[in-house]
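Late entry, evening session. Most of the bench is empty. Finally got around to the prediction I had been postponing all week. Sequence below, unchanged from the version circulated by S.P.
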Amino acid sequence: MPSWLTEWEDEDPIEHSRMKAIERNAEALGVSTRQMMESAGRALAEEALMQSPEQVLVLCGRGNNGGDGFVAARYLARTMECSCIYVSGDRKGDSAANLKALTACGIPLHEVSCREDISRLADLFSSADLIIDALLGTGAGGNLREPIASCVAMANESPAYILSADLPTPGISADAILAFHRSKGIATSIADIGIPLEAECFTGPGDLLSIPKKPENAHKGYGGKVLVVGGGPYQGAPYLAGLAALRAGADIVFVASPHALDCPDLIHIPLPGRISGEEICDLLIKYAREADSVVIGPGLGAGSHDVVLRVAAAARRAVIDADALRLPLPAGGETIYTPHAGEFARAFGRDRSGNNETDAAIVRDACTENGIILLKGPTDIITDGRRIRFNRTGVPAMTVGGTGDILAGVAAALFCRMPAFEAAAIAAYVTGRAGEEAALAIGDGLIASDLLLFIAQILYGD
């Protein structure tokens, strides 16, 4: 792993949804969930042993947090008296496997389903000098139900030292909290469970988990309305962006262009050959205000920047691409900028060095107050001026013209329903993955429209 990656690790407490994404990314890098659970449970046992207990009680819920507790109990059973209380119910995957492994260790196992079950085990609480709380993990919410509520009450009444796994179960009086990989808000110590830093710094399939799903009762337009403005000297560019937006989940896409191409899925707004003048500007501003996101720039040429500035300012969310990337810099209410190295130099006055460490600092420092920069290259760099994410999906065959237009359209569609930073990072990942899949099927002769066949499958496929 390059040592420079450690500089971009976010030190803030991590949210549950982001942790799930990192774990999924770690899986894609070859670290299994079983390995992560084993590492977490062993770290939990080692943390417990630091208190030199003589009798340990492990409380396990139905989820992965309970699986961590089963692993910890298995390690502790080697050296001391250890009992385990676990909540009844269906278990799947790693948690179920570790419960099965624990049954072969010869320690007392007690399955509980109600308050009375807990009451019958009161002696275990009063005799323990250390209790491991692995009842509810980072996804817990709402009021406690039985038998967990009684477990919490009995643990709090016990004189035992309470060690919580990752996050304390709501209401429990933890003496120590061992977080796994990163603090989830409150932690007295943090255990490394073998997740590569790349799983956090680079985009991956886990990032797709944050995409909002359409509800069963979703109506036409729920996925968002996108406006694409472009197509001066380069006729096909705005249509590629528009089709990519549809494939990425937008429901309605307008393309404002001087050229009418045969794309029945897109709604064409005819413009004169030169995109300028008050009447054209007013028309585009009207559509921009009605759109959920606006892409400006694909194929536009250099002669319409006055219109670009005014249309961008009317947009709630804008994706600024290609020829629109020039000074003065256009900006919407929220903005994603998608330059390649040359456009970045033109729009932000800075050159990409080719060194990822140096470039990350350059791009981060170039961010405006409301802007996200997605700098395209062999390794894409996405930043909001605080967070930095890298993307390394893609293949050399994607040097063909039009792939940047595809990226802009994907970003715009996601931007309709997601925050700008997450939309930009996922767009970079998905566009690169679509290129990889297209190259496998076609080879170096792929064209930009070939990527359209894979975008929806990568974003929303099972």
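Two things to note before I forget:
Confidence is low (pLDDT under 50) at residues 3-8.
Residues 74 and 104 are 9 Å apart (CA to CA).
Will write this up properly tomorrow.
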